[in-house]
Amino acid sequence: SRFFTLTDYPTGLPSRELFSLASKKLPDLGEGEVRIRNHWLSVDPYMRGRMTSMRSSYIAPFELGQPMEGGAIGEVIETNDSRLNVGDTVSHMGGWRDIAQISATGVTPLPDINVPEQAYLGILGMPGMTAWTGLNLIAEFKRGDNVLVSAASGAVGSLAVQLAKAKGCHVVGIAGAANKLAWLESLGVEPVSYRDRSAQELSDAIKLASPNGIDVYFENVGGACLEAALSQINEGARIAVCGMIDSYNAATPPPGPRNLSQLVVRKAKMQGFIVADHWSNYRQFLDEVAPQVAKGDLSYKETIQEGLESTPDAFLALFEGGNTGKMLVKLTD
Ligand code: NDP
């Protein structure tokens, strides 16, 4: 098995050298274990939060020198668990490596729906479930809401904007590059660029795109996006705080938005959430979203890097807008 380890915890943006490719001969399969040949690896912004010695409340740091982990899709090649068969396509957390040998308890066979298997790392997997959870369970979005989404062309954001459109909301999406803004526009979303804009300028652009204010803000970025959004919220607005990628690599935490008092004035609510806490709703999410994906009513994009070696670069590119839709690593043998 070839796998990545982290050699040290980074300060600021991790350098490529901190990721080391190692290999080892796998032992015989243990009791209840399964061996999987990975086809697809996921890289996600939250992984930056595991690259620290400080224990967060919800997920343990990566152990230095040990195989890193992450979402992956692969094929069972050997199993000591009778629930799984050789040849099954499964999702699991033994990513950042080519062959995973892990306990079968965390391994889930993919449902038999006519979509490409890697969709279960994106629109039908954790990121999709995050978009659905934030809108339904945290922001409680409803028909007619004016919805704003930051990092709107990413894995989470691109489903969030489409779910909001499908519900009959007016939707504004913030993104960086021109091709991302064009994709959002093709989805019926009002695109707003944040590049080279101050919080004030961004706020003005949001106002132009949504003259009736903002009722729901799906927050993926933080920083200037949050300040700009706060200045446009309506009375009773709901802000679902999904992520704040703008500060994930900050060596010292940036100051908060200067206009947080808008929450008081607008009697608005702002709530963070972690998708894992809502996983009991995954079936409901799949029943609702998967048929629409299979029919092509909900669209998604992928940015694909080839080969295990490219995994760190794929991860680092997330912080530079290097992906449209879901960032994936494709493994070939
Ligand atoms: P994305 O696919 O959206 O990739 C990240 C994107 O963020 C980039 O493509 C880039 O797009 C944008 N971005 C990066 N840095 C900045 C910046 N400094 N300012 C503005 N935009 C930036 O990732 P995901 O969809 O996987 O995740 C989106 C957010 O959701 C993240 O904050 C993540 O941590 C969070 N999340 C939270 C979960 C939870 O349980 N709470 C679960 C899953 C994800 P652009 O070109 O537009 O700049």
User: Beta-strand percentage?
Assistant: 15-25%
Report the end-to-end length measured between terminal Cα atoms.
12 Å
Report on the biggest sheet. Answer: 7 strands, mixed
Q: Give the number of helices.
A: 8
Number of strands: 15
Structural class: alpha/beta
Return residue spans where pLDDT drops below 50 for at least 5 consecutive residues.
Answer: none
Radius of gyration: 20 Å
What is the correct CATH architecture of the largest domain? Alpha-Beta Complex
Number of discrete domains:
2
Give the % helix. 10-25%
Q: Write the CATH homologous superfamily of the largest domain.
A: Medium-chain alcohol dehydrogenases, catalytic domain
InterPro entries: ADH-like_C, ADH_N_2, ER, GroES-like_sf, MDR_fam, NAD(P)-bd_dom_sf
Domain Enoyl reductase (ER): 12-329
GO molecular function, one term: oxidoreductase activity, acting on the CH-CH group of donors, NAD or NADP as acceptor
Protein name: NADP-dependent oxidoreductase
Characterise this structure.
This protein is an alpha/beta fold. Helices cover 23% and strands 25% of the residues. The chain is built from eight helices and 15 strands. The protein has helices spanning 126-138, 155-166, 178-186, 199-209, 223-230, 262-265, 282-295, 311-317, and strands at 2-6, 19-23, 33-42, 72-79, 89-92, 99-103, 108-109, 146-149, 170-175, 190-193, 214-219, 233-241, 269-272, 302-306, 326-330. The strands form three sheets. Strands 3, 4, 5, 6, 7, 14 and 15 form a seven-stranded mixed sheet that branches. It has a six-stranded parallel sheet with strand order 10-9-8-11-12-13, sandwiched between helices. The N and C termini lie close together (12 Å). The site of NADPH dihydro-nicotinamide-adenine-dinucleotide phosphate (NDP) has 30 residues, from α1 and α2.
